[in-house]
């Protein structure tokens, strides 16, 4: 590639980044359940000199006096935020947390119980992902799709029969807490873990079940969904024996370069959650309920209408696979961002300052888009108007 071509590619790259930043942060209504918006200060940490530095607990690298401080601070903040005895902030994603968890306790042929992908379970821990890569024996929770939840008594019986090495609660589609206590036999000897990737921010804010208080040895999760930090992972535990096994596997076996810019951003986000987490999480759940109820009243099919729709940041629309893809494409053309689930998430719009009244407006926009009641130009105008009215960010430290 000659010099002129390199320069043109550099310009094109800058344009793409700038265009993305403008579109996704100032023009779109983000209802993606797996995304959130980090505060300006947290985002600043991501572009500091920390992004190019190494550190290791064995002391191999020098010049780490401040990264060591940052790690210790982040660990202590995580323990305080989640009321846990132990925490590890080194994993670079929620999926990496699952990999660490699996490699710590499972081997080829080990049995693991998770939620089936067809019911919204995370594919990355099924036979499609780590289960297949590690030759595990994937067993799935007895599940009631009508209430989007596991069946406790049948789960108890399954664990008694199969005696799996690990039971991993949690799901990518998780409108309600699980009945963990009545799902685990008293004499169960396997590892009980919880993937809180989607609901970690709600757990931190006290608006969802706390797995460590309900019988789980390990809580893992992503830090960029309902938890409004940078992309990354977090491992928490109150069980010293279990945590020590996991802790020994992280470095150098699975995570080498820790990404200290991310750890600094994570620590700052945890400070924000320590101050505002309860208020934020409460508003997220309230917004989800309001959005679900408003959509239901507008005759948009919402799952779990008979049991209150949701207790999390997720509102699940009840469409088939093909129709869901069409709806997601239709909404994206109008600058409303979802996934093809369709899960509508309220985390980011809540952090933008929207409340129950705005959820009614969003429901009307979604309804009009799906039913074609108004022109695309009219709907897109309403989307941009709403986004422009809530272009700031709340729950941040001054």
Kindly describe this structure.
The chain has two domains: 29-38 and 277-389, Aspartate Aminotransferase, domain 1, CATH 3.90.1150; 43-270, Type I PLP-dependent aspartate aminotransferase-like (Major domain) (Aspartate Aminotransferase, domain 2, 3-Layer(aba) Sandwich), CATH 3.40.640.10. 46% of the residues lie in helices and 11% in strands. The chain has helices spanning 3-26, 40-46, 65-82, 94-105, 130-133, 152-162, 200-204, 240-254, 260-297, 321-333, 347-351, 356-371, 376-389; strands at residues 29-30, 86-88, 111-114, 137-140, 143-144, 149-150, 166-169, 191-195, 218-222, 233-237, 314-316, 336-337, 343-345. A hairpin with a 4-residue loop joins strand 5 and strand 6. The longest helix is centred in the last third of the chain and has 38 residues, at 260-297. The protein is globular and about 60 Å long. The mean pLDDT is 96.
Number of helices: 13
Element order: H for helix, E for strand:
HEHHEHEHEEEHEEHEEHHEHEEHHH
Mean pLDDT level: 96
| Largest sheet data | 7 strands, mixed
Low-pLDDT segments: none
CATH superfamily of the largest domain: Type I PLP-dependent aspartate aminotransferase-like (Major domain)
Helix content: 40-55%
Topology:
Elements: H1 3-26, E1 29-30, H2 40-46, H3 65-82, E2 86-88, H4 94-105, E3 111-114, H5 130-133, E4 137-140, E5 143-144, E6 149-150, H6 152-162, E7 166-169, E8 191-195, H7 200-204, E9 218-222, E10 233-237, H8 240-254, H9 260-297, E11 314-316, H10 321-333, E12 336-337, E13 343-345, H11 347-351, H12 356-371, H13 376-389
Parallel strand pairs: 1-12, 3-4, 3-7, 7-8, 8-9
Antiparallel strand pairs: 2-10, 5-6, 9-10, 11-13
Helix pairs in contact: 2-9, 3-9, 4-8, 9-12, 12-13
């Amino acid at each position: 590639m000659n010099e002129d071509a390199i320069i043109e590619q550099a310009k094109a790259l800058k344009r793409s980044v700038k265009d993305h930043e403008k579109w996704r942060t100032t023009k779109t209504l983000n209802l993606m359940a797996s995304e959130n918006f980090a505060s300006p200060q947290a985002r600043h940490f991501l572009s500091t000199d920390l992004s190019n530095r190494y550190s290791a607990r064995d002391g191999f690298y020098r010049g780490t006096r401040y990264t060591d401080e940052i790690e210790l601070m982040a660990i202590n903040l995580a323990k305080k935020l989640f009321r846990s005895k132990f925490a590890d902030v080194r994993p670079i994603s929620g999926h990496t947390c699952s990999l660490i968890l699996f490699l710590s306790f499972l081997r080829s042929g080990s049995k693991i119980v998770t939620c089936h992908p067809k019911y919204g379970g995370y594919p990355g821990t099924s036979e499609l992902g780590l289960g297949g890569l590690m030759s595990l024996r994937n067993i799935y929770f007895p599940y009631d799709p009508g209430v989007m939840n596991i069946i406790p008594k049948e789960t108890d019986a399954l664990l008694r029969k199969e005696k799996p090495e690990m039971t991993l609660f949690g799901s990518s589609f998780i409108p309600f807490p699980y009945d963990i206590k009545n799902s685990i036999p008293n004499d169960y000897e396997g590892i009980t873990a919880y993937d809180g990737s989607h609901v970690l921010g709600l757990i931190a804010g006290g608006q969802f079940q706390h797995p460590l208080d309900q019988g789980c040895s390990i809580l893992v999760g992503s830090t960029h969904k309902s938890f409004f930090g940078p992309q990354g992972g977090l491992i928490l535990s109150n069980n010293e024996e279990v945590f020590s096994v996991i802790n020994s596997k992280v470095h150098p076996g699975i995570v080498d370069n820790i990404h200290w810019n991310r750890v600094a951003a994570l620590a700052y986000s945890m400070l924000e959650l320590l101050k505002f987490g309860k208020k934020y999480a409460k508003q997220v759940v309230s917004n989800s309920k309001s959005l679900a109820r408003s959509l239901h009243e507008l005759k948009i099919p919402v799952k779990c209408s008979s049991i209150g729709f949701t207790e999390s940041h997720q509102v699940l629309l009840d469409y088939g696979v093909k129709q869901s893809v069409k709806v997601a494409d239709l909404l994206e053309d109008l600058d409303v961002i979802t996934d093809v689930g369709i899960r509508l998430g309220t985390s980011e719009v809540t952090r933008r300052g929207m409340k129950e009244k705005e959820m009614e407006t969003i429901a009307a926009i979604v309804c009009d888009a799906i039913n074609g009641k108004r022109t695309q130009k009219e709907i897109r105008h309403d989307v941009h108007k709403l986004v422009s009215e809530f272009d700031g960010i709340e729950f941040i430290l001054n």
